[in-house]
Design goal:
By secondary structure, the chain is mainly α. About 70% of the residues lie in helices and about 0% in strands. The protein has a single domain, classed as Orthogonal Bundle (Farnesyl Diphosphate Synthase), CATH 1.10.600.10. The radius of gyration is 18 Å and the shape is globular. The two termini are about 15 Å apart.
Amino acid sequence: MDDFAKKLTAVATATENTLSAILPSAADNPISAPMRHAALNGGKRLRAFLAVESAGLYDIDPAQALRTGAAIECMHAYSLVHDDLPCMDDDDLRRGKPTVHIKWDEATAVLAGDALQTLAFEILADARTSPNAEVRVALIASLAKASGAEGMVLGQMLDIAAETADTPLTLDEIKHLQANKTGALIQWSAQSGAMLAQDAGTELIEYSTAVGLAFQIQDDVLDVLGDAKVAGKRLQKDADAGKATFVSLLGLEQAQKNATSLVEEACDALGRFGDKATALRQVAHFVVNRDL
């Protein structure tokens, strides 16, 4: 996995560089610094990695793939800025650094998140992402659906409702919640390469669905076993709130077994791509072995 770790780091660095060049940097623009704080604060850049590697399956220009990676990272950063707000999860730290509303204020955090969300679509609308207008429209429309009322926002709403529900969610209800809250953007990332190539990407749909669910199961595992210093954020929030999770319903051992089984499903789905999909198989294994 050493080669994989190097590749993951290389893509993360390239994504940071791409984002840095795209994000506003004017000293007289008051929203610039909060946006850059939120979008350039490190992280594994797994969503960007999925975008770049899925594009590589179709020999797409790496510069185009890095732009789709930058777009999904802007969308992800927006979601985290808003998720950290006092009216949502009320977190003071993100990746070991003050959250935007702590470093500035709540209104600035809302606006920085809004700006990052719209920037994601601006990146995808640019001809540098794809010279084909139909491809650009497909990327924009699919990301809007994945991040809106039929995707991530729906998942967030279901999560908020779960906090005050009379009874804990069932396993199927948690799967539905997380398929939207976390899985939708992961799925878009892995499918973006097929969209750039105008391919149906059926295998990538199967792959990303399994990886997205495995990712959330591991998140629940880390919320119990993880180190807050390593994670750079507060842990065990769901347990403290009395919310049902994969771990609380399945038990730690069974949850981990389910995640491992999902990784096997994800890897099997990539059969037709052969060795070109090696990095995608490796990232599936990484998802359930990460410590943050």
